[in-house]
Amino acid sequence: MADQFDIVDIVYDAVEPVSTGFILYKDCSGDGETKNHITIRMLTLNETDVVNKGSVNINVFVKKQKNGMPDRQLMKGVTRKVKSALRNITPPFGMYWKSRIVWSEPLGEAKEGFDCTNIRFEVITEID
Q1: Phi first, then psi: what are they for 105, rounded to 5°?
Q2: Sign of the dihedral through C-alpha 17, 41, 104, 53
Q3: Strands, DSSP E only, in the chain?
Q4: What average pLDDT does the segment 15-29 reach?
Q5: pLDDT tens digits, residue range 95-104?
């Protein structure tokens, strides 16, 4: 059964190949980040003896253009790639893994100078 650290690692490994040109972070980005980046962070993990169910936040941060407008084409492209990678996760051999994208929503300027899209990803792992 995977815990919150395993789940973040598995999601990170799935997103990494499609994050070309973006810096990828687990948990949160560093202070003063000025480049396009993606953060992967575990939210609540509900643990029982047989089932773990948790939510993962994937935030895609795209730097605004010099004129202050969002770079919609870049956001659209990278968000679609990330969602595709999430739909095609291959868990470690022998691990039960069921996942789904719960939502994808624009957060606007969640961080100054960046446009942000939030993807909520739900994961269930359990003992066979």
Answers
A1: -140, 145
A2: positive
A3: 23-26, 37-47, 51-63, 98-108, 114-126
A4: 92
A5: 889 999 999 9
DSSP 8-state secondary structure symbol assigned to residue 18 = G
The mean-pLDDT minimum among 34-38, 41-45, 82-86 falls in: 41-45
**What does the longest C-alpha to C-alpha distance in the chain come to?**
54
Contact 121, 56 (CB under 8 A): yes
- What are the domain boundaries of the chain? 4-126
HSE (CB half, 13 Å, CA atoms) of 106? 10
Quickly list H helices, 1-128.
4-15, 72-87
User: For the chain, what is the radius of gyration of the CA atoms?
Assistant: 15
Which CATH fold would you assign to the domain 4-126? STM4215-like (3.30.2000)
